[in-house]
């Protein structure tokens, strides 16, 4: 197994900017995990082997629970493979990387998680975006062009799910994902990755929001877990607090407020 297929912790930044009716922007330092689901399911990867401070389906300083993703019933790999086949995607038989926030002392809220689904030749085949709001609801956008999708191309989806009360449930998302592996002199295995997920949102009047999540990876280890925990203490608890703080700032700026509509009758769109 390539060392690149080891679980990662990525250290980076969330950026968000709004252009109207009031200019509003913020950025926060964060970290997130990237997990190779096939390698983990095949037991090529045991997270406990790399870090005693990160656990799978058990409480720890940082942890990942299967029930936090997918249908909360099946193992993540079985669920995503079944969903892809159901949607007519039969060649995503390579590694599937799940990118999300880990649980911190047992707590997590993921506004969006990404499932990067590759073919056996390593090319990106589809991306599933798993979106959650603070009302306990979720929706999934499957990005699929019908063939391989080079990193860096623009992918689109119609907005059908209520996320923020300061945006209508209409318009279009524009996604762009970038990933680059390069040498890193301070890493004992000699590699690192830079990943960027960029989401632009347009409503009927044109471009409105631009959000990005970027990070530089470190292999999962006790050292990277300790760095994450103390560099950003109780980060996942702060995610929800910061969402409400930014909502208060928008309300003070008198940005129009939209009540939550009825949830969609389905939980995935393409």
Automatic annotation (TrEMBL):
It comes from the Bacteria. InterPro entries: DUF1365 (IPR010775). Pfam families: DUF1365. This is DUF1365 domain-containing protein. It comes from Herminiimonas aquatilis.
């Amino acid at each position: 197994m390539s060392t690149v297929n080891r679980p990662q912790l990525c250290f980076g930044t969330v950026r968000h900017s709004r252009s109207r009716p009031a200019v509003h922007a913020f950025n926060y330092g964060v970290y997130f995990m990237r997990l190779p689901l096939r390698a983990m399911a095949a037991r090529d990867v045991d997270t406990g082997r790399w870090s005693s401070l990160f656990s799978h389906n058990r409480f720890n300083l940082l942890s990942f629970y299967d029930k936090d993703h997918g249908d909360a019933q099946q193992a993540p790999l079985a669920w995503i493979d079944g969903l892809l086949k159901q949607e007519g995607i039969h060649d995503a038989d390579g590694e599937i990387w799940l990118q999300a926030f880990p649980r911190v002392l047992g707590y997590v809220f993921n506004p969006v998680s990404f499932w990067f689904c590759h073919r056996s030749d390593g090319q990106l085949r589809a991306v599933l975006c798993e979106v959650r709001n603070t009302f306990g609801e979720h929706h999934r956008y499957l990005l699929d062009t019908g063939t391989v999708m080079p990193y860096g191309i623009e992918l689109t989806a119609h907005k059908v799910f209520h996320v923020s009360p300061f945006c209508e449930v209409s318009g279009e998302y524009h996604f762009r994902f970038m990933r680059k592996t390069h040498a890193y002199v301070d890493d004992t295995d000699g590699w690192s990755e830079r990943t960027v997920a960029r989401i632009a949102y347009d409503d009927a009047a044109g471009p409105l929001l631009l959000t990005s999540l970027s990070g530089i990876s470190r292999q999962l280890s006790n050292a990277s877990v300790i760095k994450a925990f103390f560099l950003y203490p109780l980060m996942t608890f702060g995610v929800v607090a910061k969402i409400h703080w930014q909502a208060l700032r928008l309300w003070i700026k008198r940005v129009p407020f939209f009540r939550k509509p009825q949830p969609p009758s389905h939980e995935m769109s393409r």
